[in-house]
Amino acid sequence: MSELVKLSVNGEEKEAQKGSLLIDTLLDENIHIPHFCYHQALGKDGNCRMCMVEIEGQKRPQIACDTPIKEGMIVRTQGENIEKVRRDILEMELINHPIDCPTCDQAGECKLQDYYMESGFYESRVEVGDKVTARKREDLGSNVMLDQERCVLCTRCVRFCSDITGTNELGVINRADHSVIGTFPGRPLDNPYAMNVVDLCPVGALTSKDFRFQQRVWFLESFDAICNGCSRGCNIRVDHRKEKYKDDQIFRFKPRVNKAVNGWFMCDEGRLSYKNESENRFTTPKIGQEEVVFSNTITNTYKLLTDEKDILFVLDPNLSCEEMQNTQKLAKVLNANMTGYSPQYIDETFGDDYLKKNDRSANRSAFKEFGISEDEKEFKSLIEKASLVVILGNNYFDNNLDLLENKMVVSCFSHSCETLTKSNIAIPTASFYEKSGTYINFEGTKQKVISKLKKDRPMESITSIIEHIQTMIEKGTL
């Protein structure tokens, strides 16, 4: 274990690991330190010089991203002298920067804009016509657009493609004030994690074609969640907005830092999976393909469950732990069987040696936690003898509808699927991001999601549906 040493920052005593970077201590302690090029996932680069600090005993200001911690250091990030140094550096960044803030997609979450507002630059010493111009609206590939004029040459995107993905599509082209970021001839940005460069960009140089001009960020609300694209369970931020007379809508997913699970990043496929939330939704309860009110489906499901003898609950590995546990309790009361058989989520072409996993479900580990069998032989035996099949989100039967012939079927799904056509009772449910719950990733890490979506027609979670039925059973007679 590294040795802990004490240092002073702006007059306050702090502890940090000896030899670690000063900027990490400042960031971890939420001490404001302007910076462009440094990123904890990419390490130091030292090219922007914005993270200058005063260190007692040093003749001149030092960059915090390349200063190791020492015992007894006295550091100042505030003060007239050091703030003037940073102001001068910032003015250099702004010399050729275009006046794009009113139309820039990054407005509201742009570090250059933030630092500019802090510095109080209200007059420019450079005429607009004298600014060096560059190419705008460059399609780099992989849903990423580049505006070369806005770039501050922090090279985060270049280092991401060289150090993280190892694909090396981006580089710095030309020299001096004509230097720009670009791709190499015949080498578009093309890797499964390419859209992370949009998050890494501290200004509006790299923007997402998918999110571009869709919403102003100050209108968006956010909540923390996990991606359900695979068993990694990447931590994400869900940005959504409920406009007047419209339903709440998700506009983007962004990775959220969790060093133990996904670090700072996520794959592009998971990032764009938010679109699945609103597409092809199943919203109207049905009995025998006729639309009915929700309460009728619950009543009829209760009657089936109490009348039938051989009942099989088929669970989906994307259900929350709470939904699985509640289903287990109901199955025990009914003396019913359960299975989690779901081979359709295993995709050997999807996983890689970085973040993506071949298991494209979010909570399969919970099957082991709660002793829910996934055995194929057992599944086939149970489905063959079952007279009533209750399918909770598991779309395995979409390509195996013949297994449901001559059986009573109750289906609970958030999105339309083929299984609904074979269902005697079909109940719409809350989608993954409309419900709160706990999930266990492939490494056994438990993660809690608390949804904050505001739907005009909120769908019931499977937990809620189960509780309705349990209440009816407690009041009735089995």
Overall shape: elongated
Distance between the termini: 61 Å
Task: Give the biggest sheet.
Answer: 7 strands, mixed
Order of adjacent strands in the largest pleated sheet: 15-14-20-19-18-16-17
The helix count comes to 11
Helix content: 10-25%
Q: Could you characterize the architecture of this molecule?
A:
- The protein is built from eleven helices and 22 strands.
- By secondary structure, the chain is α+β, with helices and mostly antiparallel strands.
- The strands form six sheets. It has a seven-stranded mixed β-sheet, sandwiched between helices. Strands 2-1-5-3-4 form a five-stranded mixed β-sheet, sandwiched between helices.
- It is elongated, with a radius of gyration of 27 Å.
- The N and C termini lie far apart (61 Å).
